[in-house]
């Protein structure tokens, strides 16, 4: 029965994705970039091209004032990424340096957006994009280690809430597909309303249900959508959402699962 319920929920997800793909043109700034230096990530060229496209929309008489206002906000966020980089205090970085066990671990971005590494010291990530992480860390380590062979991956800590099997806080690779991020929480429950899934930040929608479906259909990643630490992926459930008694239970389960889920997912990826 559980397997049948899961397959039914998955079928609804694919149906929603198909409908989104057949829907109207994507919103301004929502088209996936091409030619990224690192697959799934926004490069500086990608961000520059996005800003040019958004600025064109702002000047165009073809768009409504509401759409122009959204384009202005997106352009400002893209410019902030170019100036400040993607990393925030508390973000995680998975690092593997061949032949250097002390440097092959999960590290936390600390105050000043610095990565404190054993044997090496602090490496600043201020102004560094997710797409630039590996090359930046490699160049910094090259000052201490001869020809370092580095693999580095940025992780974003997000909350996955609602009708998923294991709601909680998860550290997800920045290059993960938006749709795949939901699967990190164990997949959808049988009561999931996947067509109403959304992305929230600070209590407001960053991606409403329609934009969320379009982003999944387009195969966009967390990085391409500028998902940030603390954002919430919310999947409502059929029957009016969380009841009064169910809400505290979900909150409690999220709190007790925090240490386990962060550890499990950072090790998984």
Annotation keywords:
wza like fold; 3 domains; 39% helix; 7 helices; alpha+beta; Outer membrane lipoprotein wza fold like; disordered C terminus; disordered N terminus; 269 residues; 9-stranded mixed sheet; globular
* C-alpha Rg (nearest Å): 20 Å
Q: Describe the main β-sheet briefly.
A: 9 strands, mixed
Figure out the total of helices: 7
Question: What share of residues is helical?
Answer: 25-40%
Number of domains: 3
String of helices and strands: HHHEEEEHEEHEEHEH
- Overall pLDDT: 79
Describe the structure.
The protein has helices at 2-22, 44-59, 65-84, 133-141, 178-183, 209-217, 246-268; strands at residues 92-97, 105-110, 114-117, 121-124, 150-162, 168-173, 198-201, 204-207, 232-235. It is globular, with a radius of gyration of 20 Å. Strands 1, 2, 3, 4, 5, 6, 7, 8 and 9 form a nine-stranded mixed sheet that branches. The protein has three domains: 25-83, no CATH class; 92-153, 2-Layer Sandwich (wza like fold); 155-268, Outer membrane lipoprotein wza domain like (Outer membrane lipoprotein wza fold like, Roll), CATH 3.10.560.10. The two termini are 30 Å apart. With 269 residues, it is α+β, with helices and mostly antiparallel strands. The relative contact order is 0.15.
């Amino acid at each position: 029965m559980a397997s049948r319920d899961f397959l039914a929920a998955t079928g609804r997800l694919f149906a929603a994705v198909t409908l989104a793909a057949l829907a109207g043109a994507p919103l301004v700034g929502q088209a996936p970039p091409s030619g990224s230096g690192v697959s799934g990530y926004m490069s500086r060229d990608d961000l520059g091209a996005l800003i040019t496209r958004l600025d064109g929309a702002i000047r165009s008489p073809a768009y409504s004032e509401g759409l122009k206002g959204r384009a202005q906000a997106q352009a400002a966020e893209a410019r902030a990424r170019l100036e400040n980089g993607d990393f925030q205090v508390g973000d995680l970085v998975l690092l593997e340096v061949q032949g250097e066990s002390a440097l092959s671990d999960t590290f936390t971005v600390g105050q000043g957006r610095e990565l404190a590494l054993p044997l090496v010291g602090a490496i600043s990530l201020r102004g560094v994009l997710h797409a630039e992480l590996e090359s930046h860390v490699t160049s910094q380590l090259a000052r201490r280690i001869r020809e370092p062979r580095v693999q580095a991956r940025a992780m974003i800590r997000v909350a996955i809430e609602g009708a998923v099997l294991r709601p909680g806080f998860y550290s997800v690779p920045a290059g993960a597909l938006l749709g795949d991020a939901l699967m990190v929480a164990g997949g959808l429950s049988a009561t999931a309303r996947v067509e109403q899934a959304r992305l929230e930040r600070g209590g407001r929608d960053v991606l409403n249900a329609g934009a969320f479906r379009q982003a999944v259909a387009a195969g966009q990643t967390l990085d391409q959508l500028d998902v940030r630490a603390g954002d919430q992926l919310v999947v409502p459930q059929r029957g009016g959402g969380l009841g009064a008694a169910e809400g505290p239970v979900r909150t409690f389960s999220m709190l007790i699962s925090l240490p386990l889920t962060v550890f499990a997912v950072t090790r998984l990826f």
